[in-house]
Automatic annotation (TrEMBL):
Source organism superkingdom: Bacteria
Sorted UniProt keywords: Acyltransferase, Membrane, Transferase, Transmembrane, Transmembrane helix
GO molecular function terms attached to this record: acyltransferase activity, transferring groups other than amino-acyl groups
InterPro entries, A to Z: Acyl_transf_3_dom (IPR002656)
Xref: Pfam families: Acyl_transf_3 (PF01757)
Annotated Acyltransferase domain residues: 35-350
Name of protein: Acyltransferase family protein
Upper taxonomic lineage: Bacteria, Pseudomonadati, Myxococcota, Myxococcia, Myxococcales
Residue ranges crossing the lipid bilayer per the database entry: 38-58, 70-90, 111-129, 141-165, 172-192, 212-231, 238-255, 267-286, 298-317, 329-350
Length: 382
């Protein structure tokens, strides 16, 4: 970079700081893992289309053998979503020893947002609450525990433990303990949870009252976090992709040699699904970026697509969703068309909301512009 280019960047930076105010800093924004957004986008695509087909497909169509085969593969969607969420949290910490403590406030706010949104999308409406009265049934309905709450509480507990753990070896010990111990103690926790209030039973998983109880579903989150921690020494892309394929494929091979247990609290099932998730994440890493890049925009908007599509498919409060208004009456092509249209519509709304948010926080876009300017001047300077 020539001297005059340095001077131009310095002058530009001074003008930018004066415009954005004293709160602006020149910290480099976190780079996104090339395969993360693609894998998350794939999971979101499968989730929205899967929920729509589940709500709208006629029974005769659902009974078709290849539809049942698709339903079998759908079992990896939610584990992949949690696995990638855990990976993203630890990958963002980087290699700085104090990163878990420095970013704890940010993680805490994110966890509380996920928990709030998770309960919000299951709000039954004031009329239903008044009808049920102050009963355990009302509390259980209002505090329905689902995937977002599972991720939120996993992030809350994980971020807290990582911030308190010793700097040198604490991150490894905490993540290994959580990833391994949670599936092993899930059956015991389900037994101990019997007789507790309904919301706590949903959190624990006792009696099958929740589809995504903390035990064992948080295991996928911490397994992804552990994989990110162990593989952070490898370059993202082909190097990490090959390692993930080997790790995921090896785990599947080992689990296939064990006695299968497809029970909802099974440690075998968790390990098997983790292997599948790592394999998918590895394959997405190995794909050309022009392929994974088509899914990446969906991955970056995954939270808001999730929040937007659930009320449309299943309803919210006193408003009926597609499952009630249309019901399981459609053939494959109409249901699939509605699912794809819903996905694109939710993505568009989420993108508009993201753009409005960026306009309200110009210091973030200013940071990106400055980095681009520096990069272009450097390339001209030779």
């Amino acid at each position: 970079m020539r001297f005059r280019d340095v001077a131009r960047v310095t002058a530009y930076a001074g003008d930018l700081v004066s415009q954005l105010g004293p709160s602006f800093t020149f910290q480099k924004r976190e780079t996104r893992h090339p395969g993360l957004d693609g894998a998350r986008g794939l999971a979101v695509l499968a989730m929205v289309v899967g929920h729509t087909l589940d709500a709208l497909l006629a029974p005769a169509v659902r009974a078709h053998p290849w539809v049942q085969t698709y339903w079998t593969f759908r079992g990896i969607t939610a584990p992949l979503f949690l696995l990638v969420s855990g990976w993203a949290v630890v990958a963002a910490l980087g290699s700085r020893p104090t990163a878990a403590r420095d970013t704890y406030g940010k993680r805490l706010r994110r966890a509380l947002l996920l928990i709030f949104l998770g309960y919000l999308v299951h709000w039954p409406g004031w009329s239903a609450v008044r009808h049920m009265g102050w009963t355990e049934k009302m509390l259980t309905t209002v505090l329905t525990f689902d995937a977002l709450q599972c991720i939120g509480f996993a992030l809350l507990f994980g971020a807290t433990l990582l911030a308190l753990a010793p700097v040198r070896w604490g991150r490894t010990v905490v993540l290994v303990a959580l990833a391994v111990a949670l599936p092993l103690v899930s059956s015991t926790m389900w037994s101990l949870g019997e007789g507790l209030p309904g919301p706590l039973r949903q959190f624990i998983g006792s009696g099958g009252t929740s589809r995504f109880p903390f035990f064992p579903w948080a295991s996928y989150f911490f397994a992804g976090a552990l994989a990110a921690h162990l593989l952070n020494v490898l370059r993202p892309g082909w190097t990490q992709g090959l390692a993930l394929v080997v790790l995921g494929g090896g785990l599947i091979w080992v689990m296939r040699g064990q006695e299968a247990d497809w029970g909802p609290s099974s440690a075998w099932l968790v390990a098997y699904r983790v292997g599948q998730g790592l394999l998918v994440l590895g394959i997405v890493n190995l794909l050309p970026q022009r392929v994974s890049g088509t899914l990446a925009p969906l991955g970056r908007l995954s939270l808001w697509i999730y929040v937007l599509h659930l009320p449309i498919v299943y309803g919210w409060a006193s408003y009926s969703g597609l499952s009630s208004r249309v019901g399981p009456t459609l053939g494959l092509l109409p249901a699939l068309s509605i699912g794809v249209g819903l996905l694109l519509g939710c993505a568009l709304v989420a993108r508009i909301g993201s753009w409005i948010r960026d306009q309200a926080r110009p210091w973030r876009t200013g940071s990106t512009t400055l980095q681009a300017s520096v990069g272009s001047l450097g390339s001209r300077g030779g």
